[in-house]
Amino acid sequence: MSRIGRKPIVIPAGVTVTVDEAAHTVAVKGPKGSLNSNYHPLMTVKVEGNEVLVSRPNDEPQARSLHGLTRTNIANMVNGVVNGYEKKLEIVGVGLRCQKQGSNLVMNLGFSHQVNIPDTEDCTIVWQDPNHFTVTGIDKQKVGQYAAEIRAKKPPEPYKGKGIRYEGEVVKHKEGKAGKGKK
Length: 183
Known about the structure:
Mean pLDDT: 93
Helix content: 10-25%
Strand order of the largest sheet: 11-12-7-13
Number of helices: 3
Oligomer: single chain
Number of strands: 13
Distance between the termini: 69 Å
Protein name: 50S ribosomal protein L6
Keywords: Ribonucleoprotein, Ribosomal protein
Order of helices and strands: HEEEEEEHEEEEEEHE
Structural class: alpha+beta
Radius of gyration: 22 Å
Strand content: 35-45%
Organism: Faecalibacterium langellae
């Protein structure tokens, strides 16, 4: 059996988990908001006491692969409505910076125009200083996707490392062009 899939998900105080087995959906409601998700019909999700248990019908490869995935997705939902998720990003490079104007993050990335990135209903951008900001929200997948979309506006280039990167991301540097020898 899947080691991750077998672990029960403990439901913290103030969180309610409801499972609709007919529609194969899980709804999690907590202090930071509520999340809904579908799960595969092969999986069985039950709420017993203050725990959520995920089980699979057999040891077929598809059921085995979905077991741990389903349990992890539900655990991420429970963690999201209690603690939330965040992705920290930083802007590296001379002249590259950002600032918050209302609900928009306005970035100067060396283009001929400024790049405006609005807050969405699922994710908010928290500005720290001209080179650091954080994407926060309760849905782990949406926070990661929105952070990746922001990073894609100017990904770090391999020669000087300039661009938007995740905090702590290591950019492999390439050596520049070798100069021609003297004749």
